[in-house]
Amino acid sequence: MIFNKLTSIILIAGALGFTGCVKDEYYNPQPIPQQPVGYQYTFDDDFNRDVHNWSFSDIGNAAKVTVGGGSLQYIYEPKNDGTNTVAIQTGANLNRDFLIQTKISSNNAMGLAFGVSDNDYGFSLMIDDQGYFALYDEGSSGVAAKALIDWQESSAIQEGWNEIELEQVDGYWIGYANGTKLFELKQKYLSGSKVGFIVLANTRGFADYLTVKW
Q1: What is the model's pTM?
Q2: Which of 20, 25, 39, 110 could cross-link with 106 by S-S, CB 3.0 to 4.6 Å?
Q3: Could you read off the pLDDT tens digit of each residue along the chain, which spans 214 residues?
Q4: Where are the beta strands (DSSP E) in 69-153?
Q5: Residue 38's closest CA among 97, 102, 94, 115?
Q6: What's the distance, CA 86 to chain centroid?
């Protein structure tokens, strides 16, 4: 009888111990890993040296880019109208939220180019020296460029240097000039991941830096 009582006590204690483990696991689950907040990666070029191979000279199209001394200079003076783009791989993943920042100045029109690939000219956010801005789908070799937001004036754009930002967040593109919102538009599909600059014909433009965060 003593043996049977002792066995029963052990079994009951074991059952309670097992139940206690289950209850502890149920009421104290492991915390769910939190997603990182904010941008995790940054590409930054201050144009002190041409470490990212921006420079080129295309005599036939009268286009030239030089880098050094803290600035990127972009000259495009062809006989006909058009645009010219220089873009590089920054390592940015443009399929997630991202932020592109630069500071530019020109005697005509210059802007950011993004989503560029070898087969697609991507998109552009341009400003001119008269206080206007535009957002374009630049098309490809077989598809003409088209305006998503045609040229319109903004008091945020100043004479001389302007801080320009293009942000993709929560499914929207938001453009800024000197901290003032220019537009908000549902994002478009980007087939490329290159980022850079675009100029209109007869432009001499400068960029002070380029920063990409994602």
Answers
A1: 0.83
A2: 110
A3: 443 433 343 333 344 443 444 334 444 445 555 545 689 999 999 999 999 999 999 999 999 999 999 999 999 999 999 999 999 999 999 999 999 999 999 999 999 999 999 999 999 999 999 999 999 999 999 999 999 999 999 999 999 999 999 999 999 999 999 999 999 999 999 999 999 999 999 999 999 999 999 9
A4: 71-76, 83-89, 98-106, 109-116, 123-128, 132-137, 146-153
A5: 97
A6: 16
Residue recorded with tokens 């209109």: 200
Assigned token pair, 114: 């993004």
Token code pair at residue 84: 């010219």
Cα separations (Å) of 19 from 88, 191, 193? Answer: 61, 55, 54
**Distance (Å, rounded) from C-alpha 171 to C-alpha 189?**
10
How many angstroms separate the CA atoms of 196 and 124, rounded? 9
E-only strand ranges, the chain: 42-45, 56-58, 63-68, 71-76, 83-89, 98-106, 109-116, 123-128, 132-137, 146-153, 162-169, 172-177, 180-186, 194-200, 203-213
Distance CA 55, CA 45 (A): 13
Structure tokens at 123: 């998109």
Q: Which amino acid is at 90?
A: T
